[in-house]
Amino acid sequence: MLTEIHQQLEQLARFSSTDGPGVTRVLYSQVDQDARNYLKQFCLQRGLEVREDTIGNTFARWVGKKPQLPAVGTGSHIDAIPESGKYDGTVGVLGGLHAIILLQEQGFLPDRSIELLLFNAEEPTRFGIGCLGSRVISGQLPAASVTQLKDQEGVRFDKWRSKAGFSGDIYSCQLSKDYYHAFVELHIEQGPILEAIEKDIGVVTKIAAPSSFSIQLTGEGGHAGCVLMPDRKDAGCAAAEIVLAVEEIAQLSTSPDTVATCGIVKLEPSAVNSIPKAAYLEVDLRDTQVATRDQVLKEIEHRVVEICRKRNVAFDFKMLNRDPPAACHQSIIDRIRLNSDALGYSHQLMISRAYHDSLFMAQLCPTAMIFIPSRGGVSHRPDEYSSPEQIEKGVRVLAATLKDLSDANTVIS
Ligand code: GLV
Ligand code: MN
Ligand code: MN
């Protein structure tokens, strides 16, 4: 298993629209399509039934002895933000597939079907909103809102979707509450804890509450040499002040878990001898508690008003998402812990500060997550790394948990 997963992760990383070492794979791009086809072939070779919904979420089902029962789901995403690593999401998809293969090779046949999911766009790169596929599947993003989505050039969701070969009623993507009995996602930690405390497995208890918003600033452009300083309405300077205000407000939050990042800052016309007439920002704001996150959000909004008033710059503030945290299901947590112990792997209960498709799957069915260590806590960077041995431990715990959950007599209470 070790060599095969490792080779497949390397192979997947070649489906990238940038040269490397970083991986860039954005929803509905050619490399995204190619990577999906690559994975679908493996699923078909293993006898899984593959289907895609009308937006491209992909399901590969190992049909159980009692196919009429709600299935057990596992999986993650394969899209990758610009210049990122090889492991974020892909470990959960390939790991899910190898967990199924492991069970098949043990001669096990599940009662409930076990289904591998490849969620569309867990990353917000194309349409500015993360977990697109799992939001739709779980009914948290209605079809009408999906069709309103546009990329940063104003190209509509439907245009991208049909270019990638998908069409049809988006409402049909929503799954009923009894479609899955349970869902378990394997993922790299993306933080430093497991490595620091030398534990093999992270058992996630809660996923932090993410939010993001955009601010479009409109000032007045002009000649960089000829407009004197008192006469300016510089949208770039307003953006710079806002970036620093966001950092300061997050630092002063009463919660040590508040984190805020201005990851997108664009100036127009972006010429060295021209005063920026417009600026566009996107801010990512998270916390483990909704109350402190929303307090920080209020303070940022307040500060944006002040900064823009002082600088005579107009602004348009748009909330992109504002999600609650999710709790993982206690009885699946307990099973993951027992399975780690039985396999001789050490484990640690922990919070996920990153968001995952499980945040939304938890709205649909009992859900839990298994983490494996990330070297140096590094993620969303080309040097992201988890060793084949660490991945294998995650896959073995996942396989044991899927095996338990697929038993028709297993009650999740
Ligand atoms: C997922 O990629 C996240 O940003 O948490
Ligand atoms: Mn990610
Ligand atoms: Mn991820």
Task: Explain this structure.
The chain is of the alpha+beta class and 413 residues long. It has two domains: 2-208 and 325-406, Zn peptidases (Aminopeptidase, 3-Layer(aba) Sandwich); 210-322, Alpha-Beta Plaits. Helix content is 35%, strand content 25%. The chain contains twelve helices and 17 strands. Helix 1 (2-13) packs antiparallel against helix 3 (90-105) and helix 3 crosses helix 12. The longest helix is centred in the last third of the chain and has 22 residues, at 290-311. The two termini are 33 Å apart. The model has no long low-confidence stretch (mean pLDDT 97). The structure holds glyoxylic acid and manganese (II) ion (2 copies).
- How many helical stretches? 12
Largest sheet: 9 strands, mixed
Enumerate the spans where pLDDT stays under 50 for 5 or more consecutive residues: none
Helix content: 25-40%
Strand content: 15-25%
User: In total, how many beta strands?
Assistant: 17
Mean pLDDT, all residues? 97
Element pattern in H and E: HEHEEEEHEHHHEHEEEHEEEHEEHEHEH
Highest CATH level, the class of the largest domain: Alpha Beta
User: What is the straight-line distance between the termini?
Assistant: 33 Å
Structural class of the secondary elements? alpha+beta
Name given to the CATH homologous superfamily of the largest domain: Zn peptidases
Radius of gyration, whole Å = 22 Å
Give the total of domains. 2
| Multimerization state | single chain
The general outline is globular
| Secondary-structure arrangement, i.e. CATH architecture of the largest domain | 3-Layer(aba) Sandwich
Task: Write the CATH fold name of the largest domain.
Answer: Aminopeptidase
Are any ligands bound, and if so which? Answer: glyoxylic acid, manganese (II) ion
